[in-house]
Design goal:
- The protein has helices spanning 43-50, 73-83, 99-109, 114-128, 143-155, 173-189, 201-204, 228-242, and strands spanning 2-11, 17-27, 32-36, 58-63, 66-67, 84-87, 161-165, 193-197, 209-214, 217-223.
- By secondary structure, it is α/β, with parallel strands linked by helices.
- It has one domain (2-94, 160-242): Rossmann fold (3-Layer(aba) Sandwich), CATH 3.40.50.
- Strands 6-7-8-3-9-10 form a six-stranded mixed sheet, sandwiched between helices. Strands 2-1-4-5 form a four-stranded antiparallel sheet, with helices on one face.
- It is globular.
- The protein binds adenosine-5'-triphosphate and magnesium ion (MG).
- Residues 43-44 line the site of magnesium ion.
Length: 246
Amino acid sequence: MLKIKNLRKVYTKGVNTEALKGINLEVEEGEFVGIMGPSGSGKTTLLNIISTIDTPSSGDILIKGQNLNKISKKELSIFRRDELGMVFQYFNLLDSLSVKENIALPMILNKEDVKNIDNEVLSISKTLGISELLDKHPYEISGGEAQRTAIGRAIINKPSLLLADEPTGNLDSKSSNDVMQLIELLNKERKTTTILVTHDPKAASFCNRVVFIKDGLLFNEIHKGDSQQQFFNDILKMLSFFNNKL
Ligand SMILES: Nc1ncnc2c1ncn2[C@@H]1O[C@H](COP(=O)(O)OP(=O)(O)OP(=O)(O)O)[C@@H](O)[C@H]1O
Ligand SMILES: [Mg+2]
């Protein structure tokens, strides 16, 4: 469902920084892939390019056979709206809107029927365990609740690809675990293809496969067998190999 071919990114403002040096990666429909690697290795750059927030310097990205380099701006914005869901470390919720309105925003922007919107928000907020919070505002809820709200917003349009950059980076371990269980549930039940960037080996152990990036290049990847605990240990081993800060 996702094909990345020889992707390069050079930031040219000020000093030139070659953030991605030729990434090749394929992700199958329904996969749950983690991306790990040292700070500055290019993880966010990669995710921002997949999510069309940023553009590559060269190389191609195909999502469901569509080459994102070759479609117009208008097509790109429709594509983003219909196919992609995004979750960030700092939640990016709008304080002026209620939890309910934040979740519903993509459907409101799509001018969908109010009744449909209400039904979807109710059903999603139940899954996410935030149905009691719908009338509150983002500054009146906890970090874990805010991230669950952001996940609600990311999935309300039933995206085929969910992209998450450090979604647990600002959460305590309990909330972090809740959020990861939810992302795992969505991946299993809705078959939403999911890519997660994380520093956290526990969060990464929810994935089926973890890809390691170093200095803008894919370095290695490991797959989960039957046991999440064993996978967690394997990830730890890889990270210690990287001499990474945990
Ligand atoms: N907007 C930008 N302009 C110039 N250089 C940038 C920009 N964004 C990132 N970089 C550089 O590109 C490289 C990769 O950065 P990136 O943010 O992708 O790393 P990362 O793996 O996400 O790191 P972290 O784990 O700290 O979030 C770094 O050297 C960084 O300094
Ligand atoms: Mg980053």
